[in-house]
Amino acid sequence: MLKTLRVPSAAIVLLAATSLPAAPADDIKQPTGYRQWFHVNTMIVDKASPLFDQLGGMHNVYVNAKGLAGLKKGGPYPDGSVFATDLHEYTVSDGSYVEGARKALATMVKDSKKYASTGGWGFQLWGGGDPKKPLVTDATKQCFECHQPQKAQDYVYSTYLP
Amino acid sequence: MLKTLRVPSAAIVLLAATSLPAAPADDIKQPTGYRQWFHVNTMIVDKASPLFDQLGGMHNVYVNAKGLAGLKKGGPYPDGSVFATDLHEYTVSDGSYVEGARKALATMVKDSKKYASTGGWGFQLWGGGDPKKPLVTDATKQCFECHQPQKAQDYVYSTYLP
């Protein structure tokens, strides 16, 4: 279980590029109502992480009803499944890591035809959660390459925690 | 907002006793279905915290529908409001704090008459989430004393994060 969470569910990891074709990401709409979705898990990425610059903060991961059915099975996920990672700042006081303001919102949207080149998933990340600030311009390089090792779980890192 | 979260929402802080009368806690039933409730916030308490022995771990706080209405207003909470704190172990790897197995389950249940002596809230904590292992024997000393400073928010520390 632990291994499956080492990289965030909606990972936006800006790692080295490969020769995969670029996939458009600018057509992804922000999920709405995700604060009422199933809370999948939470992870904190702090300064000791090589991912801190891109991913530092508290990651609260949610999934919609269609996606929850897939999560419980460990994949595959039906079209219409959506994950949202609500990334928040946090403060540390006397050993307590406390959730702060929203830093970004990330999503994975399953549409097996539309996003066939990236495992059937569309990816996007918005700075500050602002729909006018999409930050992913090449989902293959910025997102999918890091999800490829999770092919057996339909490219999702999170597992179901009852 | 940060200040309101420094002590866990379902705090089970074993601090010094006062002269308040003891309140029974052994009649509280475990909440069911809380993993489908609204995710209020998450907090990590680590070894640097004076609360670590009692409260160390990742606190995922949930509230039921009745309680969510109260949370959005900042209190008061109607009878039937229930908070659940799903306390998990966590591991740290390369700067990522990752959720692990369940360590305990805590709850606050609002019944203004039944629990009048503890601000209208009943409190309980179960080791390992096991309904056969209730750990609170005196809700006044073990729970309510730490919640008293939050009277203005109906004794709840958490605030609503949209």
- Low-confidence spans of chain A: pLDDT under 50, at least 5 residues? 1-22
Tally of DSSP helical segments of chain A: 3
Strands across the major sheet of chain A, in which order?
1-2-3-4-5
Query: Roughly what is the average pLDDT of chain A, rounded to an integer?
Result: 87
How far apart, in Å, are the first and last alpha carbons of chain A? 12 Å
Largest sheet of chain A: 5 strands, antiparallel
Strand content of chain A: 25-35%
Quantity of strands of chain A, as a count: 5
Which pair of chains forms the biggest interface, and how many residues does each contribute?
A: A-B, 36 and 36 residues
Multimerization state:
homodimer
3D shape of chain A: globular
The topology string of helices and strands of chain A comes to: EHEHEEEH
Helix content bin of chain A: 10-25%
Helix and strand content put the structural class of chain A at: alpha+beta
Overview of this protein structure:
The structure is a homodimer of 162-residue chains. Chain A is of the alpha+beta class and 162 residues long. Helices cover 14% and strands 30% of the residues of chain A. Chain A has a five-stranded antiparallel β-sheet. The model of chain A is unreliable at 1-22 (pLDDT under 50). Strand 4 of chain A pairs antiparallel with strand 1 (38-45) of chain B, so a sheet runs across the interface.
Q: How would you describe this structure in keywords?
A:
5 strands; homodimer; alpha+beta; 162 residues; disordered N terminus; 14% helix; globular
